[in-house]
Write a structure and sequence with these properties.
Number of helices: 18
Structural class: mainly alpha
Order of helices and strands: EHEHEHEHEHHHHHHHHHHHHHH
CATH architecture of the largest domain: Orthogonal Bundle
Radius of gyration: 23 Å
Number of domains: 3
Helix content: 40-55%
Number of strands: 5
Largest sheet: 5 strands, parallel
Low-confidence stretches: none
Mean pLDDT: 95
């Protein structure tokens, strides 16, 4: 980038709500001169998926934390709402910016908006620079020997490890030089991202503290605590997972920071589990690479033969029982209540509740994906549909459809003492607990019959 003496740099934030290891901000600081930092809520451009309720709650808190951090660094967070194609040029005009920087996104609609904007800004004599900041390995760089996207995770993982080591994180700037005058900004409260009637976010407030500082505390707590027991992560009552997923989703911490922290100085007890955890970080990369090649991942089967699957017409009573944790299947109900209360669910249990919806109730995976999109604080445009399709058998490197998770056997194996179940379903041993809404054995047989029917029609 050229020297910034000719005008301010506009740093356009999206899913990178942090000051440290933010390459777009780092480039602006290196350029020199005043910096305008802006977040644009673009939920109007065609192809963009509006955030769900839990994500809106997280976004409000994260933006509040970021605004306070910028104040401490001598600057201010500017908020605007509207399509990027009109709002970014308007911000350029309002600030006299001669350069705009941002972190790259990989969904089709986002790529198209960014490319058109970069072209328009360049035509107007404004520098426009995008940077890699949300993925360790950009999708077009990790391909098979024949130059096609990977469809299976393990060879994708090996290909990532054969790449040069991901760059080291950029430091947090000491100051962020402010312009002589700030442009007009929306008031965050006016965006009405927080629930009010009713206010259902009490459990989220109790469970989470969004923001960059909290993200790094969470990482350090994991490194010095649960990482040593990460091998027990399938046991939901032990809860030895990292709790980093929503922080990564909103870019309060970067995958580069996580990668190098786990490859750095670790407690002796934690070292052997670091590689297992980083493998899960690469699974996140895999889902984003799949999304890059399949932009309709949330709405279309990755495996087209599943287009002929005979889904049942969902019964409102069954779907509501699943959503509300009233199925009469204890592990399923515990997971769905954890989700509603905290905005997350243990990963092992996510697979169980998804399998129950898809295979025991024969309800289309897209219906479950939409519920998770609305209720998860870590709802991600690649991971959410990618993982649902994995369970459904319709996705990349998917579990075979005939693998039906038995929630009773899963509870026997991973929650033998029923600690997790009793935490979320305290009435489990009382007459208040409902009878199962479906027979697990019979519904499994119906699911396998439906799968065989689909394969027959597809000529497989």
């Amino acid at each position: 980038m050229s020297e910034g003496s000719s005008g301010p740099t506009l740093v356009w934030l999206r899913d990178d709500l942090r000051l440290a290891d933010n390459p777009a901000l780092h480039a602006a600081v290196e350029r020199g001169g005043p910096i305008v930092v802006a977040f644009l809520l673009d939920d109007e451009s065609p192809g963009f998926r509006p955030l769900g309720g839990a994500s809106h709650w997280w976004l409000h808190q994260s933006l509040s934390a970021l605004a306070a951090d910028l104040d401490d660094h001598g600057n201010r967070l500017i908020l605007r709402r509207g399509p990027a194609a009109t709002e970014i040029p308007r911000l350029v005009a309002d600030t006299g910016a001669t350069a705009v920087t941002w972190t790259r996104r990989y969904g089709k609609a986002a790529r198209e908006v960014d490319a058109a904007l970069k072209s328009a800004l360049t035509d107007d004599g404004v520098e426009a620079h995008s940077f890699q900041g949300s993925l360790l390995f950009e999708p077009w760089k990790i391909q098979t020997g024949s130059g096609t996207p990977f469809k299976v995770f393990t060879p994708f993982y090996r290909a990532c490890l054969e790449q040069p080591e991901p760059r080291h994180p950029y430091p947090k700037p000491h100051t962020v030089e402010a312009p002589d005058a700030f442009p007009a900004s929306d008031d965050l409260d006016d965006w009405a991202l927080l629930p009010t009637k009713p206010d259902w976010a009490g459990g989220l407030r109790d469970r989470w503290e969004p923001g960059e500082a909290s993200a790094h505390r969470t990482l350090e707590q994991f490194v010095h605590g649960d990482l040593a027991d990460y091998g027990d992560r399938d046991f939901p009552a032990h809860d030895t997972t990292s709790h980093l997923s929503p922080h990564l989703r909103f870019g309060e911490i970067s995958p580069f920071q996580v990668w190098h922290r786990l490859r750095g100085d670790l407690p002796e007890s934690a070292r052997k589990q670091a590689a297992s955890f980083l493998r899960e970080v690469v699974w996140r990369e895999f889902n984003h690479t799949v999304l890059f090649a399949n932009p309709d991942l949330a709405t279309a089967n990755y495996r087209p033969e599943f287009d002929g699957f005979p889904w049942a017409k969902p019964q409102a009573s069954e779907l509501e029982a699943w959503q509300q944790g009233r199925t009469g299947i204890p592990l399923v109900d515990a997971g769905m209540r954890e989700l509603w209360q905290t905005g997350v669910m243990h990963n092992r249990v996510r697979m169980v509740v998804a399998s129950f919806l898809i295979k025991n109730l024969l309800i289309d995976w897209r219906i479950g994906e939409r519920w998770f999109w609305d209720t998860l604080v870590d709802a991600d445009e690649a991971n959410n549909p990618g993982n649902w399709q994995w369970v459904a058998g319709s996705g990349a490197d998917a579990a075979p459809y005939f693998r039906v998770f038995n929630p009773v056997l899963q509870a026997d194996k991973f929650d033998k003492q029923r600690e997790y179940i009793r935490q979320w379903v305290p009435e489990i041993d009382t007459d208040d607990y409902p009878e199962p809404i479906v027979d697990l054995k019979e519904s499994r047989r119906h699911a396998l019959d439906a799968y065989a029917d689909m394969r027959s029609k597809a000529g497989l």
